[in-house]
Specification:
The protein is α/β, with parallel strands linked by helices. The protein has 7 helices and 10 strands. The chain has a domain of 153 residues: P-loop containing nucleotide triphosphate hydrolases (Rossmann fold, 3-Layer(aba) Sandwich), CATH 3.40.50.300. It has a 6-stranded mixed β-sheet with strand order 6-7-8-3-9-10, sandwiched between helices. The chain has a 4-stranded antiparallel β-sheet with strand order 2-1-4-5, covered by helices on one side. The longest helix is centred in the last third of the chain and has 18 residues. The radius of gyration is 17 Å and the shape is globular. The structure holds adenosine-5'-triphosphate (ATP) and magnesium ion. The site of adenosine-5'-triphosphate has 11 residues, from strand 2 and helix 1. Magnesium ion binds next to helix 1.
Length: 221
């Protein structure tokens, strides 16, 4: 079953001579419960594509359907609900809130939705990500790898349909990067999560079920 369907997606920036075709007709289907890596040169359109799948940005043309929801029909408020309920984001720079504790950061997306995590699932996630001892610490007190584990917990806690990770190991040394990637891969297996991850690291991309290469805003076969 495909959880993401992208059809003829186009996104252009600017006009005339200086126009950039960030996405130039992307067709992509992503199978539920699989780990897909997206690779490609800098500027090839990887982040633009991921942001459209996550409902952070809208295309000029084409369609994105995630877990049965067509994003083009949604208003800004509905897109916000879509992102909160269906997508877990993991970024290169972790994007944690420095003034909140690890526990509060993990619970943050659910608190925005006015709910609290299922306590059993919360315990399971923090032990899986080895965060049990650090729940009352602040992000700045953790290593990069530790901060990224918090971001992964935050992404998993709402049981999203998909996890979108934009170079999640980009700011980590190679050992922490391997470790974080191992945890992401295990979350796909343990929680039947669907993961789409952008990486520049071909060795890490090889750990995915499938590798998709983008070149000049198009998928290369
Ligand atoms: N908001 C924007 N305004 C203008 N141009 C943009 C904007 N966002 C992206 N672009 C351009 O679109 C193209 C694709 O950018 P994108 O960020 O998707 O690339 P990328 O593959 O993620 O690159 P990197 O590996 O460096 O992160 C680039 O040429 C970029 O300069
Ligand atoms: Mg990028």
């Amino acid at each position: 079953m495909n959880i993401v369907t992208v059809k003829n997606l186009k996104k252009y920036y600017g006009k005339g001579e200086s126009q950039v075709k960030a996405l130039n007709g992307i067709d992509l289907q992503v199978e539920k419960g699989k780990f897909t890596a997206i690779i490609g040169a800098s500027g090839s359109g990887k982040t633009t594509l991921l942001n459209m799948i996550g409902g952070l940005d809208l295309p000029d043309e084409g369609e994105v359907v995630v877990d049965g929801v067509s994003l083009s029909g949604l208003k800004e408020r509905e897109l916000a609900v879509f992102r909160r309920s269906k997508v877990g984001f993991v970024y290169q720079n972790f994007n944690l809130i420095p003034s909140l504790t690890v526990r509060e950061n993990i619970q943050f997306p659910l608190s925005l939705a006015g709910t609290t995590p299922d306590p059993v699932f919360f315990q399971e996630i923090i032990s899986f990500l080895r965060l049990g001892e650090r729940l009352e610490a602040y992000p700045g007190e953790l290593s990069g790898g530790g901060q990224q584990r918090v971001a992964i917990a935050r992404a998993l806690i709402a049981k999203p349909s998909i996890i979108l990770a934009d170079e999640p190991t980009g700011n980590l040394d190679s050992k922490s990067g391997q470790n974080v990637l191992g945890l992401l891969k295990m979350s796909v297996e343990t929680y039947h999560q669907t993961l789409i991850m952008i990486t520049h690291n071909l060795e890490l991309a090889q750990m995915a079920d499938r590798v998709v290469r983008i070149e000049d805003g198009r998928i290369c076969q």
